[in-house]
Design a protein that fits this description.
By secondary structure, the protein is α/β, with parallel strands linked by helices. It is 24% helix and 27% strand. It has helices at residues 71-81, 98-111, 151-156, 173-183, 197-206, 227-234, 254-261, 310-320, 325-330, 334-339, and strands spanning 2-5, 8-10, 15-16, 20-23, 27-31, 40-43, 48-51, 53-58, 60-61, 64-65, 86-93, 122-123, 126-132, 161-166, 187-190, 210-211, 239-243, 265-268, 280-284, 287-292, 295-297, 357-360, 366-371, 374-378.
Length: 379
Amino acid sequence: MKAIINGRIVLPDAVVTDRALLFDETIRGLVDPAGIGDAEVIDARGQYVAPGLIDIHIHGYLGEDASNGSEEGLLRMAEGIVKNGVTAWLPTTMTVSYPELRRAFDAVRKLRQPGNNPNGAQMLGVNAEGPFINPSKKGAQAVEHIRPADAGFILENADVIRMFTIAPEMPGALDCIREVAKKTNILISMGHTAAHFEDAKAGIAAGIRHATHLFNAMTPLNHREPGVVGAALTDERVSCELIADTFHVSADLFTLVARVKGDKLVLITDCTRAGGLADGEYTLGGQPIFVNGIECRLKDGTIAGSVLKLNNAVKNVLEHTDLTVPQAVRLASLNPARVIGAAERKGSIEEGKDADLFLAGDDFTVARTIIGGRTVYEA
């Protein structure tokens, strides 16, 4: 048994300072510090003790890319992002060829098995961002690999795909959405789409329940044609991703989106292989990208993912909104756990859940990360 003392423990709706957190592989509960017995003690020294963050949309990190299908690369990513407080994630593929996607899926299938990823953030499955998207909203996706909607491909890999992105206005998309929604629990997201409001609503009626990086690569909110943004914001069934790097979306909108979507808002990074590295030239989906500070762009200036760290996304929300610490942390822990169906075990400090935790200071710089009760990173 282990006990964290002297911490500001971040619960779903409060921060507790007068209790010790007891855990082994799972959370055992909050107790009076005098009652921890012979438990191994971790002194938080006044830091936040928060539930592990869950990044459901991240392509790469430390020079690696999930689309490459490299087991070594995925492990390097998993062991890198724990330094950002991330304890679980969905390796996210791009619009690449079917053989490349299958290799990536196979690598995650193997590494998510017990014991195959001992020191990294747990892989909960794959997020397939494409290839069933609209070429006119491809962003940094490779147009030559865009394909018609194909429910068979998704169902063939339903054991590992946890969510995927589709443009609902494209031929065959609604039938694909209906079939996948009927036969699986996969989270279906609309993104890289030129859909009109009614097209988006039709997609939601068919089974879409999520919006990929809200505002980016989709039709905007207009007072006469609300677009995909309007459909995502106004439908309570739809959860929305937000890249809170202050570049993809103006920080002035963070409060508005948080008020509208509440627990249906999920912070993501959309991070590329340039994450955790210096400014310079890298690749994304086989295309060169150029990184300058928080900006990642193709040669023609198109925005191409990010270098955001998920703990910094939480920090940015706290700095630019009036959300409380529990509310901001939920956006990157409990909310993503809920939308991908993992909240029974993940996302919050509650008795019986996995002991996935991180310790951080006021600026959310991570000092320690714990997965399944075991420290995997300590600054």
